[in-house]
Each structure stands twice: as C-alpha cells, then as structure tokens.
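Please fill in the sequence for the structure shown.

STRUCTURE ENCODING:
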C-alpha cells in the first residue's frame, strides 16, 4: 500500500514483530515510563552541557516538564533545541518537552474548508453490515446530530459522523483480533478524550458522479492524524488491508450530497463542539465501541 507522511515511524522504531500494540497493557505502560525517563535524562544532560541553572526537570511517567525559576534568565529553549529537543510553554514558568516526532502540529485558526477533490465516495452505510465495508467512525452526539439535515441524499443511511479510518473488508474470523489491535492502539496513543469543533460548511467534489458534497470541517484539540496513522500502521502490520484513500487526514462530517458541480448548500449549519470519548467500528454484524482514555 502507499505510505502516508509518518505512517511507519512507529513500525520503524519497534519493528513489525515487536510492535507496541502486540504487547500487554502493562508492557505498554512500562514502555511509556522508560521513554519518559530517557527523555528526562536527555534534558538534564542538555542543561548541564549548556550551563543552564535554576530549573527543575520532572516526569509523570508519560511526559517531561521543566519548571523554571522566576529569576532564571538561562537559554532554556536554545539549550533544548541544540540537543534535538523541542518545548512548549505551558504557563507559570513550566515547559513541556518533546522529541520532535511527538510534536503536535499547529491547527489553523481558520476552519473554512477549501474545495477538495476525492476519488472515493464517503461512507454512507448503516452502522452494521456484512464486513465488506467496515470502518472506524466518531459519532456526532444526538444534540448536534439533530442540527444536520434529515435527508442528506446520496442514499446515505449512516447517522451523522466523522470518519476516522475507512478499513474495508474484515473477515469475520478476524474481527476479535482487529478489535484488540484497535483498542490497544487507542490505549497506547490517547491518554484522554479530545474535543471536536464543527466549522463553517465547505465542499468536496465528486467529478465522476457530477456532484458536490457539503461537509462540516472538524477541528480537534489534539493531533488525531497521528493517532489515525498509528491505528492504520498497527492494522497493516497484522496483515489487514486498509483501503482508505485519504493519506492526509481531513476530518469532516457530511451535511448533504448535491447534484451538479456548482449547486450551493442552503441547509442548516450545525455549530458547536463535543467530547470524543469513543470511536466506533461500523459495518460488521454488530457495532463495536472503543473507549478513549482508559487507564492502562
């Protein structure tokens, strides 16, 4: 399969046979703690090397923090940068330290979605099916879903949702295996639920079907693209064929299918945000729910 921007960085780190999602929850927790301690030691060495004083380096077993004395004038960020580390100011003189590949990219403030073109149609089936068109989806809560058009056209039978990862066919004999991989992936990559915010309507264009699709772009307050890449990589490493064609994640919720390439959307415009504390697997005999932010 084609490889997206950072699709395989975790596989390159661990190797397919010792991929973190094949480990037990305790092993994954221990791995996080070891990584955090290694980063903490790296930060301490950087400050010693560049003669930075008046700082306190701590870890909670997952992230690394630097507390700066109010009187300190040392080159904190410069010292970290010279040693290949990055930081984000958290307030009250505290910095959170990152290894560059762990940095969350900045999300543009402007949520207007420019018109884009795509080859494959959006998921429009019910939440259950025969396993030939399975995928991971974030359901829109009922209060916000009520603001979406009742008839979205395009033979769309799905409840309002944000597509997370379209998978395709999952053999019924491997459903349990796929579910285990997905839940462990989310446990490994997501410590807490995230917030999703709906933006102003935009469009996708289906040239082959002579139609536009009006959608709400969705902004998360966390880097869900990297989480998606990690789940994709874990499933692929286990031999599942992921058929999603969106190599760059463009989260959105479909509003309506519009005949013609120039027809404007005139329906309701949902507004608001919601907490994403679960991701659901649709398209199988039963719906499977994966909780986000479980303690491991």
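FILLED IN BY: designer on duty
SEQUENCE:
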């Amino acid at each position: 399969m084609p490889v997206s921007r950072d699709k395989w960085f975790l596989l390159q780190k661990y190797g397919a046979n010792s991929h973190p999602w094949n480990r037990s929850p305790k092993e994954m927790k221990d791995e996080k703690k070891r990584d955090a301690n290694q980063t903490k030691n790296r930060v301490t060495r950087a400050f010693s090397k560049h003669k930075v004083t008046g700082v306190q380096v701590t870890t909670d077993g997952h992230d690394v923090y630097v507390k700066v004395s109010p009187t300190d004038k040392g080159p904190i960020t410069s010292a970290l940068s010279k040693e290949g580390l990055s930081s984000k100011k958290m307030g009250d003189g505290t910095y959170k330290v990152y290894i560059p590949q762990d940095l969350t990219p900045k999300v543009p403030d402007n949520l207007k979605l420019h018109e884009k073109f795509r080859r494959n149609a959006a998921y429009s089936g019910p939440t259950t099916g025969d396993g030939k068109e399975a995928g991971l989806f974030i359901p829109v809560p009922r209060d916000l879903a009520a603001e979406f058009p009742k008839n979205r056209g395009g033979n769309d039978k799905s409840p309002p949702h944000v597509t997370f990862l379209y998978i395709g066919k999952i053999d019924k004999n491997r459903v349990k295996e796929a579910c285990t991989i997905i839940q462990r992936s989310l446990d490994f990559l997501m410590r807490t639920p995230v917030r999703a915010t709906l933006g102003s309507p935009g469009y996708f264009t289906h040239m082959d079907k002579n139609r536009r699709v009006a959608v709400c772009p969705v902004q998360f307050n966390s880097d869900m693209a990297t989480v998606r890449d990690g789940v994709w990589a874990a499933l692929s490493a286990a031999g599942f064929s992921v058929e999603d064609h969106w190599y760059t994640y463009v989260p959105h919720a479909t509003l309506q299918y519009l005949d013609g390439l120039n027809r404007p959307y005139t329906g309701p415009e949902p507004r608001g945000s919601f907490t994403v504390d679960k991701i659901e697997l649709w398209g199988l005999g039963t719906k499977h729910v994966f909780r986000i932010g479980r303690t491991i």
